[in-house]
Design a protein that fits this description.
The chain is an alpha/beta fold and 397 residues long. It is built from 13 helices and 19 strands. The protein has two domains: 244 residues, Aspartate Aminotransferase, domain 2 (3-Layer(aba) Sandwich); 125 residues, Aspartate Aminotransferase, domain 1 (Alpha-Beta Complex), CATH 3.90.1150.10. The strands form five sheets. An eight-stranded mixed sheet has the order 1-11-10-7-6-2-3-18, with helices on both faces. Strands 14-16-19-17 form a four-stranded antiparallel sheet. Strands 9-8-15 form a three-stranded antiparallel sheet, with no helix packed on it. Helix 1 runs antiparallel to helix 8. It binds pyridoxal-5'-phosphate.
């Protein structure tokens, strides 16, 4: 492994991409669960975690789930999405978004990203709705498939946000349900309102690499009391009578255990500090990369106050002399972890048979995108050293 030339005395042996920070009351709350025996979903931290997130977003309802994927599945089902229907989903996202649609029996329609900020393109959503759909007996129908188009799942990628104003206007005009996938965007704002408060419901993930973590976990949030009630009901096997084991529909074991919710409560107490750390890190990255024209940061739109979940750049191979994958491998040899973006879903063997409205942009972002170390605990003072390593890798190309 080549030794980085400019290693400062305090430089770590390994720089992970996104490592959790398990400080504050995490240990105390976890020990409380062990001491009291409340480890399952019946314990008090579950509701406390729900109240904390609902309060943070200023929303009345939150339902804690075992994962972000479970949250998406529940939100879609609670909103009535099912077989014979279609849901618009960005093609550039983590696969869970489209998988959750498929779990309901509905089909995703995959929409390309706009090129500058990498988020779902409202203009292509408009294009699909006007050119590919028509109203038939009061239903919006996809001309090609004959299925009813019922919902849209905008995904706020990388801690930035989708342009929600035009999405909401299209949803209003075409009577679409909006379920935000805010798995990566806790703490991000669009026009001064949090990501997760713009749709009929929104879903968060507390997976290990997210802004806050419960190890694994998720949440459905909504203003709609019926949607919340239904999501909660479905999350606990749709029990109509818990004593007699009577279940009134097909439910799931999707509730978050108390042990994990305890971690979530401790992490929520530190959220503002974590966000400040992420934003300071992004500022450090921007200035450290300013004189590297071959790396273009994927910036948020002017309407977004990003949470900068993963600071991501587009690598221009013509200017750098190497592409994103080779740069990733070179940095890995120096103990610095980076990661490409997700394979666009219309190229995934799982979803390649779905209708796609694409213009080659997600594919280009997939080829060129590279997320750089963005852990809450990464000292911004180390960023110039990591940037120097990037510079050296490029110079050796
Ligand atoms: C955009 C997006 N949606 C959904 C998920 C699924 O969340 P989980 O891993 O908690 O199931 C993730 C991340 O993991 C994600 O990044």
């Amino acid at each position: 492994m080549p030794a980085p030339a400019s290693l400062p005395a305090a430089a770590p042996a390994r720089v992970p991409l996104a490592e959790p920070r398990l400080t504050g009351n995490a240990r105390r709350y976890l020990l409380d669960c062990l001491d009291t025996g409340w480890v399952s979903s019946a314990g008090p931290y579950v509701e406390r975690f729900e109240r904390a997130l609902a309060h943070y977003l200023d929303l009345p309802h939150a339902v804690a789930t075992a994962s972000g994927t479970a949250a998406l599945h529940l939100a879609l089902r609670a909103a009535g999405i099912g077989p014979g229907q279609e849901v618009l989903v960005p093609t550039l996202t983590f696969i869970a978004t489209a998988n959750a649609v498929r779990y309901t029996g509905a089909r995703p329609v995959l929409v390309d990203a706009e090129p500058r900020h990498a988020q779902m393109d409202p203009e292509l959503v408009h294009h699909f709705l006007t050119r590919h759909c028509r109203w038939h007996k009061g239903r919006l129908v996809n001309r090609q498939t004959g299925r009813s188009v019922r919902a849209i799942v905008p995904v706020h990628l990388l801690g930035h946000t989708v342009e929600m104003e035009p999405i909401r206007e299209l949803a209003r005009r075409y009577e679409l349900i909006v379920i935000e996938d805010a798995a990566q965007a806790l703490g991000a704002l669009y026009q001064d309102r949090p990501a997760g408060t713009w749709g009929d419901a929104a879903c968060f993930s507390f997976n290990g690499n997210k802004v806050i973590t419960t190890g694994g976990g998720g949440m459905v949030v909504t203003r709609d009391p019926q949607l919340a009630r239904r999501a909660r009901h479905l999350s606990t096997q749709a029990k109509a009578d818990a004593v007699e084991y009577v279940h009134d529909e097909l439910g799931y074991n999707y509730r978050l255990p108390n042990l994990l919710a305890a971690l979530g409560c401790a992490q929520m107490e530190e959220l503002e500090d974590f966000l400040a750390a992420k934003r300071a890190l992004a500022a450090a990255w921007r200035s450290a990369l300013a004189d590297l024209p071959g790396l273009r940061p994927l910036e948020p739109s002017p309407h977004t106050h990003s949470s900068w979940w993963l600071f991501t750049v587009e690598v221009d191979p013509a200017l750098c002399g190497l592409d994103a994958r080779r740069l990733m491998r070179r940095l890995a040899e120096r103990g610095i972890q980076t990661r490409p973006l997700w394979q666009p879903l219309h190229l995934s063997p799982v979803h390649a048979d779905c209708q796609a409205v694409v213009r080659g942009r997600a594919e280009r972002l997939w080829q060129r995108g590279l997320s750089l170390p963005s852990s809450v605990g990464l000292d911004p003072a180390l960023v110039p050293w990591i940037a120097e390593n990037i510079r050296e890798c490029i110079a050796q190309a």
